[in-house]
Amino acid sequence: ELEAAQRAQSDREKRLKEEELRLLEEARQKVEEDKIKAEAEAAELQKKVEMEEAEAQADEAKFKQQMEEAKAEQARMEEEYKAKKAEQALKVEEANAELEELLAAEKERQAQMDVKDKELREQERQKLLLANEAALKELEEAEAEQARMDAEEAEARKKIESEAATAEAAQRAESSGSQAEYDAKVAADQALLDKRVSDSERTGDAEQQAERQAALDLEAQSEREAKELSEKEKERDRKAAEKLAADSEAGGTVVVEGEPLAFDYDAYLRGDPIPCTVGEWSAWKKVGGLTEETETITYTGDGTGAVEREREIPTGRWKQRWKREREVLTAAMNGGTCVTEDFKFTTQASTNCQDSDWNEWKDVGAPFEVKKGNKMIWYQKRERDRRTAVVPDGCNLRIDTMNKRLEPQDCKYSAYSAWKDVGGAYEQTKQGRAKRGGGYQMDKTGKWVVKQEATRTVIEQAKYGGKACSNDNLKGTREKILDPVNCAQSAWGAWKAISDRVDRECR
What we know:
- The structure is a single chain.
- The strands form 6 sheets. Strands 8, 9, 10 and 11 form a 4-stranded antiparallel β-sheet that branches. A 3-stranded antiparallel β-sheet has the order 4-5-7, with no helix packed on it.
- The chain has helices spanning 2-203, 206-250, 265-270, and strands at 255-256, 259-260, 277-278, 285-300, 308-325, 328-330, 341-348, 362-363, 368-372, 375-385, 399-405, 412-413, 420-434, 440-455, 458-460, 475-481.
- By secondary structure, the chain is of the alpha+beta class.
- The protein contains 3 helices and 16 strands.
- The longest helix is centred in the first third of the chain and has 202 residues, at 2-203.
- A hairpin with a 2-residue loop joins strand 1 and strand 2.
C-alpha cells in the first residue's frame, strides 16, 4: 500500500511537472509572440515618429521660407513708402516754393498797384484843384457877363419892341400895297379880256379866236399867280405871327400854370444852347426783373504768372433797376439838353441759405498741412454745389466751401496670425540669486515650455500726424507651458508562475 501510494504520489508529481512544463512553454511562446508584436508596434511607432518629424521639418522650412518672403515684402514696402514719402516731400517743397514765388509776385504787383493808385490819386487831386480854379474863374467871368447882360437887357427889349412895331407896320403896309396892285392888275387884265372878247365877237376870224384863247390862258395864269401870291403872303403872315409869339414868350409874357418862365433872351439871340424846362419827378417804378451782378477777377492762365487773364464770375448779389420821369413844360432851344428820365439800381445780397439747398460735401484736391504755433494741422478742402434752383429772393450762392480739420490716424495693423511653435521644447528658467562678479544665477523651474510666435502686417499707413508704423509691432512672442507627458506603457500581461523550487538529494 505504501509502494502503491508512493507510485501514485510519483505519478501525480510527474503529471504536475509535465503540466508545469507545458504551462511554462505556453508562457514562453506567448512572451515571444508579445515581444514580436511589441517590436513591430515599436517599429511602426518609430516610423510614424520619423514621418511626423519629417513633416515638422518640412513645415518649419516652409514657415522659414514664408518668413523670409514676408520680410522681403516688408522691406520692399518700406522702401516704396520711403520713396513715395520722399517724392511727396519734394512735391510739397516745390509747391511751397511756387506758392512763395506767387506770393512774392502778388506782393510786388500789389506794391506797384499801390504806387500807381497813389499817382492816380495825386493826378486826380491836381485835376480837381485845377478844375476848381477854372470853375471859380468861370464863375467870376459869368457874374461879370451877367452884369453886362443885365445892363443890355433893358435896351435890347426896347429895341426889339420898336423893331417889332416897325416890322408889323411895314408888314401891314406891304400887305395893303400888294392887295391894291393885285386888284389893279386883275382889273386891267379883265378890261383887256373884255375888249378882246368884244373884238372877237365882232370879227369872228381865226386870228381873233387865237387871241381869245391866249387871253383866256393869260387869265388862268393870272389867277394862279394871284393864288400863289396869296399863299406866300399867308405863310409870311403866319411866320411873322410865330416870331412875334416867340419874342413875346422870350420876354416873359407867356404864363404856364400861373407862373412866369425865366428865359435868357440874350443867350437865345447868341445861339447858346438853352435846356428845356420840366415839371416834378414822378415816383420810382421797377423796370424789368432782378439780375445778378458779376465781378471781374484776374488770374494767370499759364501757371507762371506772366499772362494775366480776366473773367466774370457771379457774386450772388442781385440788382433791381428803377426809373422815374418828368414832364416837359417848354422845349429845349438851340440844341439844349432835356433830361426827362432818371435811373438807379438797388442790390440784394444772398440770404436764407439752408442745408436743404445744398448737395453733399465733396473733397477737393489732396489734404494739406497748416502750421499753427508749433503744431502742424491737416485740413481737407471741401465743396458742395446747389441742389435747389437759384432764385433772386433766396440763397443765391452757387458754390459753398469749407476746410475740414482731419483727425490724426495711427498706423493700422491686421489681426495676429495663429500661434506657431518655434524650435523645440526646453526647460524653463528664472532669475535666481546674484553671482559674484555680477549677473544672476538662472534656476530651472521644472516646467517645460516651447517658444511661439504670431505675426501681422500693415494694412494702412499713419496719416495726418498719427503714430507711424513700426517693424517691432509686426511680431509677438510667448512661452507656452507644456503639460507633463508620462511614460506610455502597455497593459500588464498574464501572470506566470515562477518556480523557485530546488531539487535536493536526501542523504
